Amino acid sequence: MVSVTLNAAYLDLGYLLNADLTMLANFTNPNKKVHVDFSSVIIYLYYGSTLIATQYVEPFSAARLQSRFATIHMVSSQVQLPLRESQRLVKQMEGNGVILEVRGIFRARSKLGTILRYSYNLYGRCSVMLTRPPDGIMLKKKCRTKR
């Protein structure tokens, strides 16, 4: 994840979350010998334990040692938050440090020439801290990817 911007976030009735987030994601193939096709990419956005938005990314390929960037726009509308999460969000917005979690599931297929091909899933997970909207810039991030 290169950058994340929290464009808007507010609670209706004190517990219904409306949010607008834009992120620039970097998909990199670090391998020197293998071409990778990403056939399915789904991004999930969480606040605490609550899923607040999902986004599908069109299939794409990454040649050897190639990086690919994608702009991902996520919107949540009237997502009900539990009471504790609503209270925590209000405190985080007042303190200017909103913490969100971005998870991704990537179905990948690697090709070594025309002979060897294998498919696998990758699981990405990033915790990001953002300032309050409308600026909503990324202060910190911690990401990891597992197979």
Automatic annotation (TrEMBL):
Q: Where in the cell is it found?
A: Membrane
According to the UniProt entry, the coiled-coil residues are none
State the InterPro entries in the record. Answer: NDR1-like
UniProt keyword annotations, A-Z? Membrane
Q: Which GO terms describe its cellular component?
A: plasma membrane
Q: What is its main location?
A: membrane
Q: Name one GO biological process term.
A: defense response to other organism
Its protein name is Late embryogenesis abundant protein LEA-2 subgroup domain-containing protein
Species of the source: Vigna angularis var. angularis
